[in-house]
């Protein structure tokens, strides 16, 4: 069984997708980490003329050892990730790894932006997660605060809106709700309620 979970920044899709992985005993991949790892690799070259070429090279040589979640969670890396994610050759370089993960024997859960549209259009269940920008900002702010980081909510709100806009307008992105995706709005749901709702959708389609 392949479960595809797509949605905007800080929509709760990662928590939801990893919860589904545990519930159904399926391996889980956070595909945003791949783009974040590429973004981090070219962080020092953001303003240079060869940013694109360097990002492509980083994507082609990306190693599993580079995908260290603890170094990749900042807003700065999130924003860099969305900049490398508009480069078509970066997306193609990361395709096979995601595709192989999705199609492994026994199934998998993946979250990202284009899982249901491009990586695994044949997924058995597709969830498209939505939540209003203000509540997404607040969730992300609390995650940072829980790690002891100071948060400027105004700046964070704008970073999230800017990243969403770049992702939605990304001509190579595939970030839209697939026709056969189930829409799940988590604005008013806590983690447990959102997971119960997602499990109900998955169970209902099996
Ligand atoms: O999911 P996360 O917020 O960690 O993703 C970081 C960035 O990586 C996104 O804003 C998006 O630009 C890019 N991304 C993507 N396709 C995916 C996953 C992430 O373009 N499947």
From TrEMBL:
GO-annotated biological processes: pyrimidine nucleotide metabolic process
Pfam families: Cytidylate_kin
GO molecular function: ATP binding; dCMP kinase activity
Swiss-Prot/TrEMBL catalytic activity: dCMP + ATP = dCDP + ADP; CMP + ATP = CDP + ADP
Chief place of localization: cytoplasm
Location(s), subcellular: Cytoplasm
Superkingdom of the source species: Bacteria
Entry's Gene Ontology cellular component terms: cytoplasm
Cytidylate kinase domain span: 3-199
Classification via InterPro entries: Cytidylate_kin, Cytidylate_kinase_dom, P-loop_NTPase
Keywords: ATP-binding, Cytoplasm, Kinase, Nucleotide-binding, Transferase
Catalytic activity, EC: 2.7.4.25
Metal-binding in keyword set: no
Residues that coordinate or bind ATP: 7-15
Family in the record: Belongs to the cytidylate kinase family. Type 1 subfamily.
HAMAP family: Cytidyl_kinase_type1
Protein known as: Cytidylate kinase
Gene: cmk
């Amino acid at each position: 069984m392949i479960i595809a979970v797509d949605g905007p920044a800080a929509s709760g899709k990662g928590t939801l997708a990893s919860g589904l992985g545990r519930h159904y005993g399926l391996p889980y991949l956070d595909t945003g980490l791949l783009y974040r790892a590429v973004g981090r690799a070219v962080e020092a070259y953001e303003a240079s003329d060869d940013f694109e070429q360097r990002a492509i090279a980083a994507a082609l040589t990306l190693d599993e050892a580079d995908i260290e979640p603890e170094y990749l969670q900042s807003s700065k890396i999130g924003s860099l990730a969305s900049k490398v994610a508009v480069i078509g050759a970066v997306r193609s370089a990361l395709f096979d790894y995601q595709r192989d993960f999705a199609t492994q024997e026994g199934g998998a859960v993946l979250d990202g932006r284009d899982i249901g549209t491009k990586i695994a259009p044949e997924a058995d269940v597709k969830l498209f997660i939505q939540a209003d920008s203000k509540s997404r900002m607040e969730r992300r702010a609390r995650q940072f605060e829980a790690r002891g980081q100071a948060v400027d909510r105004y700046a964070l709100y704008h970073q999230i809106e800017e990243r969403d806009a770049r992702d939605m307008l990304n001509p190579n992105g595939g970030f839209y709700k697939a026709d056969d995706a189930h829409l799940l709005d988590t604005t008013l749901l806590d983690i447990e309620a959102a997971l119960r709702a997602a499990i109900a959708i998955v169970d209902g389609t099996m």
